[in-house]
Sequence to fold (397 residues):
Amino acid sequence: MTKCPACLVGFSVADFPSLAQHLVERADDSDPDHVRWLNQNLTRKKSDASALIPGLEQVFSLGTGSLARWVKVRFIAKFFGKTPHPFVEALQHPSRATLLGYVFEHQHFLRQWVRSCAFIMARTDRPEVVQYELDNLTTEYGGYGPDRPSHYELLLRMGESLGVDRSTVLATPPLESTRRSIEQWNEMATGERWVSVLTAMHGLELIAHRNLTEEGASVHYFDPAILSGSEITPAAQAFLREGYEADVGHSDEALALADRFANELSVVEEVQSVFLRSIDLFDDYLIGRLERAGQFG
Amino acid sequence: MKRNYDGCAICNSTWGNVWAEVEGERMFFCCDLCVVQFRALIDRIERETGWNRVDSIEVAGDRRGRTCRVSSSGESARFRFAFTPEGQLLRFAREESRAP
Fold:
């Protein structure tokens, strides 16, 4: 199945004419998600559906590469291109406000993360996927005991090191952009195939993948120099270091599983569409972190 | 209001079909979100400059960050700005005028 990357409605495999017609019709209705997708991925110029087909074929083409490579290329283009995402720019040498924006919004992201990964586990029949998710959830949320706290715990400690009590963080509802993204990730987790959700969620861990500059990224997620010295608090260093060290393995391993099972189940195009939707949601969510940062100066 | 874009007043897209009134003029937008953005932008420019109306606006850039050159009754100013996903201003700052 091919899915619309703006709303995930389905079409037959490689039925780009129908997908193009759908995009044109929804854009004619001035739907912001469809207009946005067309503007950012194909053209800003209103066209006939037939004129969009070559562009759609190009977007979905794996060329001679793998699905994993395609995911990385799309992710790099969106977040680490010539003009990196504004949150990535802010995190190079982050202010206290930027880090607090991270803390307040990311606690909600991580709580949804657990739900999304749990749906993958509940639906897959592949033991290696279950094992991968168990390891990931323990690192991200459960922790390995007092010596190796979870990423979630490290996030809250980062907030405390910046002068904000965890009870304040936990009691603060998400901003609208975070709330909307989380709501749609939840719908994705409950409604899409497990291999699509695996790709859509774990593909996002590429954000902290420290080797992406070797694959075309213009910058790292943050300047690695901030992990030493006193530019940020030790708790902030511990939080960022955890992602920096874990997310190479998390994302590469997940993308290898995605590649294998999307091909085995013959659902590559479907997985691609769900991933494209997820990175648009992630883009908005990262802006939400900046919006929250604006409340701290 | 004189604009440099033929399409949507914010992003120049010609998709969509939203017509909305801004400062007494009916303008084309690709979606409702761009209407919210444009109104927020014009409101902020007028607050920042003290102008009663904006006579012309030239927008450049993309969703990662835009600039505009605005004028009113012989005065002009430049601003940098970006929006939240809900269309409110995330960043807004005056830029020093530069020679073309």
Summary: The two ends of chain B are 22 Å apart (CA to CA).
